[in-house]
Amino acid sequence: MIKYELKKLCSAKALVILTAALICLYAMLCAVIRPDLSKYTFDTELYKMYISKYGGEYSQQTYNDMCAELEKQQKIAQQDLSGSSYTVDEYMFLSEQITAAEHKAQALEAVIDRYTSLESGQQLVYDLEFTDFINGYLKKLGTLLCLISVTVITLRLSLSDYKCGMESIMFTTYSGKRNILRIKLIIAIISASVIALLFGLCELIIIYSRDLGDISAPICSYGGFEECKYGISLRSALYLSVPIKILGCILFSVLLFVVSRFVKNDIISAISLLGLYALSGQLNGLMILMNFYTSINGIYWFK
Q1: The dihedral of CA 145, 150, 156, 158: what is its sign?
Q2: What is the largest CA-CA distance in the chain?
Q3: Which of 101, 146, 160, 200 could lock onto 242 through a cystine, CB 3.0 to 4.6 A?
Q4: 3-7, 150-154, 176-180: lowest mean pLDDT where?
Q5: Global pTM?
Q6: Model confidence band, residue 52 (pLDDT cutoffs 50, 70, 90)
């Protein structure tokens, strides 16, 4: 019976194509879309340069070095060229130096603000792209596409035989109603696990293709995860997020399967479960049995 259900599911080319298309769409959009760093008032490239230079755990010597560098750049930026006579080339050169110093001072001030806010166990890391990209596109887009794929496959397993009238015949066979539904649920769980694994691996590839700085730093060093109670690195959290995402998708698939068996309507079932997912996000991810919202999103479980 299991082989029959698996064969029937795999023979549905539309489902296979849909899943592959959603994964490809996700990868393509994440490759094309770039984080919007223009919202920052400082030069993000200079900010990144200073993070690379002064990054790591807090130390008074590093703080003093940054303050000295800031004072140096501020002095250059405060030069007044109006009272002196310069050639055109000299004036242009000094003006460029002053402008560059102003940008460096702004970036340094942002780095120092970040540095002085570090708490025990945190390190100074470049997290602008990580915070913006992960909290934006990976969190919303990847989860939505993953859940769409899980929803379509789970509803097909749950209701396809019911809709075509085959269910009443199958339930009278030797396998019986309970055994058939159990097999369908097991296959739904396996399918959800595979889909979540594929999306999770896709996310890891996308994340590693981005410049996220030192991902061996504690996860609490990154924006949005400052209050994380787990003493692990960002690299470990990324790896662990994949099985957590799988568990979240399994829970979603099981709940959807159960609801659809009661409602007997795929549209109502899908809307109710996806609506519940959206509601759980508004409630900071709290849901009966487990942290549903953050489990689906994987990495957010570590907040």
Answers
A1: negative
A2: 101
A3: 200
A4: 3-7
A5: 0.75
A6: confident
CA 4 to chain centre: 36
Tokens (6 digits) for 172: 């009278």
Predicted confidence (pLDDT) per residue in 217-260, tens digit: 888 787 777 777 777 888 888 888 888 888 888 888 888 888 88
Question: Token pair 């990054």 is at which residue?
Answer: 55
Give every CB contact of residue 289 below 8 A, 6+ residues apart in sequence. Answer: 251
Give the bridge partners for 233, in sequence order.
Answer: 218
Domain boundaries, the chain: 2-33+125-302, 44-124
